[in-house]
């Protein structure tokens, strides 16, 4: 168990006055208050779903009149650049391209707010290349245009840390992702909402390795374990303004600190998986090996039953 130290430079204007665990009326929290459907887009890290479920659990602690429906439609192997390396997945299939399914995803999910985390696959695990970088930028801009064209808000998340120490590549792929993240962060000057996960995660790993040189969030260099997923969720929670909840040592501790029953986390995770599978199936995709979900009406009915159980345990006695 641990507590996070976010090594971020925050201006006074971005600091939020909080009452308990409820976010105040700053712009990020206003996004939540006017969003009834929140959609997460991303690759296998998002598809795994833990950080999305932890974020959804945090939403139960907020003083929202109508808690939004959270829908995870992350897809393993996907890029926003449309690129794929030769022999991907042993030559069985190329990486799926978000552009192929994005219109259908937005049609079926009807989001008010989209959080998208791409980049770790988009560099194709190769040294920095201008052409790959240009394709990433074009994909992000296309994503933003289509989401905003639906009247929804898009929040972009810089790619997660890549653990060079675990990968043993002859170059730093995390440094490649530094470049991708720097470009995204520069778009803040154009008014784009961007959460800097990459910088925070890179700094946290460096800090932890001062006392534990073998520390990692990602044993395979790419995919975070439970601790890494909580770090990701906590950083999103921090961006939305709840520093108290973000400083918790785990999602269970976060719920308990906000007067919620930690046992509800399992129900929230079940609901998240149910919705993910159903919406991925309803929208369709070209990625083999993804299990089919229930038809949407049946999935929504089951999700509603889980929501009743979650609501029943919202407050601890």
Detailed description of the structure:
- With 317 residues, this protein is an alpha/beta fold.
- The protein has a single domain, classed as SGNH hydrolase (Rossmann fold, 3-Layer(aba) Sandwich), CATH 3.40.50.
- Helices cover 46% and strands 7% of the residues.
- The chain has 13 helices and five strands.
- The protein has helices spanning 27-33, 44-48, 50-59, 98-109, 130-149, 164-167, 173-186, 197-209, 226-239, 243-246, 251-257, 264-283, 296-312; strands spanning 37-42, 69-72, 113-117, 153-157, 194-195.
- It has a five-stranded parallel sheet.
- Helix 3 crosses helix 9, helix 3 packs across helix 12 (264-283) and helix 4 packs parallel to helix 5 (130-149).
- It is globular.
- It starts with 26 loop residues before the first helix and ends in a 5-residue tail after the last helix.
- Mean pLDDT is 91; it is low at 1-26.
Biggest beta sheet attributes: 5 strands, parallel
SSE arrangement, N to C: HEHHEHEHEHHEHHHHHH
Helix content: 40-55%
Structural class: alpha/beta
Using the coordinates shown, work out and report the CATH topology.
Rossmann fold
Short description:
With 317 residues, the protein is an alpha/beta fold. The protein contains 13 helices and 5 strands. The two termini are 25 Å apart.
Write the layout of secondary structure elements.
Blueprint: H1 27-33, E1 37-42, H2 44-48, H3 50-59, E2 69-72, H4 98-109, E3 113-117, H5 130-149, E4 153-157, H6 164-167, H7 173-186, E5 194-195, H8 197-209, H9 226-239, H10 243-246, H11 251-257, H12 264-283, H13 296-312
Parallel strand pairs: 1-2, 1-3, 3-4, 4-5
Helix pairs in contact: 3-9, 3-12, 4-5, 4-12, 12-13
């Amino acid at each position: 168990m641990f507590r996070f130290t976010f090594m971020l430079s925050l201006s006074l204007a971005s600091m939020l006055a909080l009452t308990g665990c409820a976010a105040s009326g700053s712009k990020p929290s206003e996004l939540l208050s006017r969003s009834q459907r929140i959609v997460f887009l991303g690759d296998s890290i998002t598809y795994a779903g833990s950080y999305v479920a932890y974020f959804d659990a945090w939403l139960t602690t907020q003083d929202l009149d109508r808690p939004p429906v959270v829908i995870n439609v992350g897809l393993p192997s996907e890029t926003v650049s449309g690129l794929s390396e030769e022999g991907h997945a042993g030559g069985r299939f190329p990486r799926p391209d978000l552009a192929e399914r994005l219109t259908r995803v937005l049609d079926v999910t009807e989001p008010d707010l989209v959080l998208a985390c791409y980049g770790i696959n988009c560099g194709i695990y190769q040294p920095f290349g201008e052409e790959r970088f240009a394709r990433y930028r074009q994909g992000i801009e296309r994503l933003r245009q289509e989401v905003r064209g639906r009247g929804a808000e898009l929040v972009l998340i810089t790619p997660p840390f890549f653990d060079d120490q675990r990968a043993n590549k002859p170059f730093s792929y995390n440094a490649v992702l530094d470049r991708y993240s720097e470009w995204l962060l520069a778009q803040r000057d154009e008014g784009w909402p961007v959460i800097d996960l990459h910088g925070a995660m890179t700094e946290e790993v460096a800090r932890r390795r001062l006392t534990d040189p073998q520390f990692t969030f990602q044993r395979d260099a790419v995919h975070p374990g439970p601790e890494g997923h909580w770090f990701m969720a906590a950083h999103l929670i921090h961006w939305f303004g709840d520093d108290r909840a973000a400083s918790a040592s785990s999602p269970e501790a976060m719920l308990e600190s906000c007067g919620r029953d930690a046992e509800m986390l399992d129900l929230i995770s079940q609901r998240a998986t149910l919705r993910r599978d159903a919406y991925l199936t309803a929208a369709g995709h070209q990625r083999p090996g993804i299990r089919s979900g229930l038809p949407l009406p049946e999935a929504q009915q089951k999700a509603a039953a889980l929501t009743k159980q979650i609501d029943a345990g919202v407050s601890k006695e």
